[in-house]
Amino acid sequence: MLPINLIREKREFIIERLKVKNFEAEEIINKILKLDSSRREIQSKTDLLQGEMNRISKEIGSLMKDGKRDEANASKEATYSLKEEIKVLTDKLVPIDIDLRNEIIRLPNLPHESVPGGHGADDNIKVREGGIMPVVSETALPHWDLIKKYDIIDFDLGIKLTGAGFPVYKGKGAKLQRALISFFLDEGEKAGYLEVMPPLMVNEDSGFGTGQLPDKEGQMYHATLDNFYLIPTAEVPVTNIYRDVILNADKLPIKNIAYTPCFRREAGSWGAHVRGLNRLHQFDKVEIVRIAHPDHSYESLEEMVNHVENLVSKLELPFRILKLCGGDMSFTSALTYDFEVWSAAQKRWLEVSSVSNFESFQANRLKCRFKEKGDKQTRLVHTLNGSALALPRIVAAILENNQTGSGIKIPKALIPYTGFDIIN
RNA sequence: GGAGAGAUGGGUGAGUGGUUUAAACCAGCAGUUUGCUAAACUGCCGUAUGGGAAACUGUACCGGGGGUUCGAAUCCCCCUCUCUCCGCCA
């Protein structure tokens, strides 16, 4: 949510920046400014009348105390018309406030000045790449065949228990999940992140705070009896820890890491290229979240990108880092880097992490502010998050890239966690 | 699921219709004095928004929403949440 002051003061700038996201903002902004100025006009009139009202009421109070009944009654008469006026004004104000808010939350976050224009994945910019491309034989199997061959992940069983997209991990497959989760958490802890284990269901306020609600309602599983939502990512509960909080500047940056299962309905987005582990309704992910000082949030972003790069490097996966173009970025992001790893048998890049700076866009919804020592004014923090990492596609890449005649080799860094070095 | 009690500033907690301008204490910040692992004293100490160069000042906010009243933290209604006991249960 963009602050109303910014919209008021930098109308042209916002319209220009949002064009990078292919968003035509002029009409909405004009509407916002119109609503805002009538809101302010009515509000200041109301404040004036209310002040008068308060003054008279106090007067009546002291007259009553002095026993001057008649004078008090005369003053009461004077308030009737005032009261009526105030009611007329506030009745006008309520729908304006609602409209204003509904319009403001339609505006996406401004992209950072370095974000290139563009409409889709083809316009993203490759920042760098690393790792060694694996050499696999012509008969290399895609992971959905490998998991059957070694009986480590069972989709059919998941269908029996729940439905498509809810796999059952078995034996070394299950152990590999646990190993990756522990590995990612340990690496995060070494990098100074505090681990948290949040609830997997959140309320409506939390859904609003990080931007899932009201727009992306259909993407989340909804427990309607209690009005809870299953989290689509740990970003939601972890970032909402800081909802309605005023932090001391010296506490920043706050660095949290959390492992959670993630639940996504992915309604309507199923297709041929999302077989196997490429897209699931339930999957595991370790997420890093930062609450940063606005002056240093881009340093935080770089550190997070480096952290994720370190993870994929240690897993010996060939990767590339993309800076997303305006058209491919999310509604809430100001700058996003995507990590993709090479999947040798599918011969495609798979997105395994998305690291973003939301600047103050989420903070404004969350009302997460900070105060500089000795300063009276509060300011909005910047929030950031990134996957570090999402498991299924990492597993897909490890299985496909490391397949040999004698089995699937486990990356060295992971062996202390799995307790085995090959799946056969 | 049943019964009861409650929700007040960073914390504890007073306030049941008008000197409350939300007390007091604790924590925090600034200063004074003594002089040294510190104490005493004084002052400041919520958020948002409007006006003002600033000092200052108007308005709203006591879990959320509505109502009664000239006036509501206080009275009424609805909702949410928390605690205690009972039931159920890992």
What does this structure look like?
This protein is of the alpha+beta class. It has two domains: 4-104, Helix Hairpins (Orthogonal Bundle); 121-423, Bira Bifunctional Protein, Domain 2 (BirA Bifunctional Protein, domain 2, 2-Layer Sandwich), CATH 3.30.930. The protein contains 13 helices and 19 strands. The protein has helices spanning 4-9, 11-20, 26-65, 69-104, 143-149, 155-161, 172-190, 204-209, 235-240, 297-314, 361-366, 391-401, 415-418; strands at residues 125-130, 153-154, 168-169, 194-195, 201-202, 222-223, 228-230, 245-248, 254-263, 282-292, 319-323, 335-343, 348-357, 368-371, 378-380, 382-390, 403-404, 407-409, 422-423. The protein has an eight-stranded mixed sheet. A three-stranded antiparallel sheet has the order 5-7-6. Strand 14 and strand 15 form a beta hairpin. The model has no long low-confidence stretch (mean pLDDT 91). It binds one RNA strand of 90 nucleotides through residues 40, 43-44, 46-48, 50-51, 53-54, 56-62, 64-65, 72-73, 75-80, 82-83, 246, 367, 369, 373-374, 378.
Question: Briefly, what CATH class of the largest domain?
Answer: Alpha Beta
CATH architecture of the largest domain: 2-Layer Sandwich
> Taking all residues together, what is the mean pLDDT?
91
In helices, the fraction of residues equals 40-55%
Global outline: elongated
CATH fold node name of the largest domain: BirA Bifunctional Protein, domain 2
Query: Number of folding domains?
Result: 2
End-to-end span in angstroms? 51 Å
Summed up, the helix count is: 13
- CATH-defined superfamily of the largest domain: Bira Bifunctional Protein, Domain 2
Backbone structural class: alpha+beta
